[in-house]
Amino acid sequence: MKFNQSTYLQRIQYTGSLAPTLDVLQNLQRAHLFQVPFENLDVYLKRPIELGIDPFYTKIVQDNRGGFCYELNGLFFELLRSLGFEAAMVSCRVFDDKKGYGAEFDHLAILVKIGESRYLTDVGFGDFTMKPLHFVLEETQKDPNGIFVFDTYEKDYFRINKKTNDVWRPEYIFQDKTRALTEFAGMCHYHQHHPESHFTGKRLISKPLENGRITLTGNILKRTSGDKVEETPINNEEEFNNILLDSFQVRL
């Protein structure tokens, strides 16, 4: 289905200004995160994910689904460009405590230039930032989801770090280099099919709530509200599908 800006904005329930400003970028990111879940259900069901704006649009907007980074940030990038933002896709290598940094094109994120400043915006990394991050080094930035800071890494890479419980942990590294969507095809295939991909093991769908988060992983539904965590087992596929519809407005 052909990309339609107005229908996309309806999908994320955004009705504000469309000027390419920082306030608008912040509001668009927040709206997107609350309305479009991060999910790997097609990967788990072995439904192929085609890398392209039209299939992304059909799935996320027309079919009211979520997706993973290539889909979510790929389509969000198209929306930003259609609104006049100066945006560029970047390739990120995600940090893993056991394996270190992933391969190039492991993750897709977006850099947006507004005036003389640039911002990292990412609607495809699960429980990451609620707001775009100012792309400046060694400046601590507070976000509703935590405290973040950019620094440098070897071989011309930049690193984004998150502070949790007074401990800094890397999230991912990236080069300041504009990428095309087609360059992510190899890793998109890897994450759909390789047994070592963290997307092929368990089904997952997740989105933020006003004071927490709701996540369905495997057969467990987890709700957080402030410091309160509630976990509920899912006993069968009927329950699973009902939760998808009631909590995420997703129908497979």
How would you sum up this structure in a few lines?
The chain has seven helices and 14 strands.
Radius of gyration equals 17 Å
CATH architecture: 2-Layer Sandwich
Strand element count: 14
Range of strand content: 25-35%
Number of helices: 7
Per CATH, the class reads Alpha Beta
Structural class: alpha+beta
Poorly predicted segments: none
User: How far apart lie the N and C ends?
Assistant: 19 Å
Order of helices and strands: HHEHHHEEEEEEEEEHEEEEH
Percent in helix: 25-40%
Largest sheet: 9 strands, antiparallel
Give the overall silhouette.
globular
Mean pLDDT: 95
What is the CATH third-level topology name? Arylamine N-acetyltransferase fold
The domain count comes to 1
